[in-house]
Specification:
Radius of gyration: 17 Å
Strand order of the largest sheet: 1-2-3-4-5-7-6
Number of helices: 4
Strand content: 25-35%
Shape: globular
Distance between the termini: 60 Å
Structural class: alpha+beta
Largest sheet: 7 strands, mixed
Order of helices and strands: EHHEEEHEHEE
């Protein structure tokens, strides 16, 4: 009898700071999210300059799977007013081919820790009510349901509701 030993396949995943060179992959993942119809009201992927202005310069991360971007997260300001400088809105996307592998949870958990180090005291998430997976992810990472924003906006003539979640302090 011959015993064949196979080398264990080690898949390396790591979280890294999002860099401009990651943007093409980030944009592709964002476009996949847009195609679901329950991730964003946006209908076009922004260019790097527009994206860069939307998100805060700190707390931008990608999940790399053997150097391929498979997920990303970032923070945007909740308000321009100085009194809200420690409150930010979470954005998180995972490539369709890598969903349900714990990537979103790892990214969001990392983002929470790093945001606290950066001086944020509250994170919020505004999620389509139909996006049960994202709502569940945020709840698993300590967010609590604050309420619903009914008929908050239309896309393609259809009204959508958003669920508002806040990080627990």
């Amino acid at each position: 009898m011959r015993v064949v030993r196979q080398a264990a396949v080690v898949v390396k995943m790591k979280i890294a700071a999002l860099q401009p060179e990651h943007f093409n992959s980030v944009a592709g993942i964002y476009e996949e999210g847009m195609a679901t119809g329950v991730a964003t009201f946006e209908t076009e992927v922004p260019d790097w300059t527009t994206w860069d202005k939307k998100f805060l310069p700190m707390c931008r991360y990608v999940m790399l799977h053997e150097e391929e971007v498979v997920g990303w997260c970032a923070l945007s300001p909740a308000s321009k007013r100085e009194v809200y400088r420690g409150v930010a809105e979470v954005t998180i996307y995972v490539a369709a081919s890598h969903q349900r592998q714990g990537i979103g949870k790892r990214l969001l958990s990392h983002l929470i820790v790093e945001s606290e180090k950066a001086g944020f005291w509250t994170l919020q998430a505004s999620i389509f009510s139909e996006n049960k997976t994202s709502i569940r992810l945020h709840e698993q990472c300590g967010f609590r349901l604050l309420g619903y924003r009914e008929k908050i906006a239309q896309r393609d003539g259809q009204w959508f509701d958003k669920v508002l979640l806040l990080s627990k302090s």
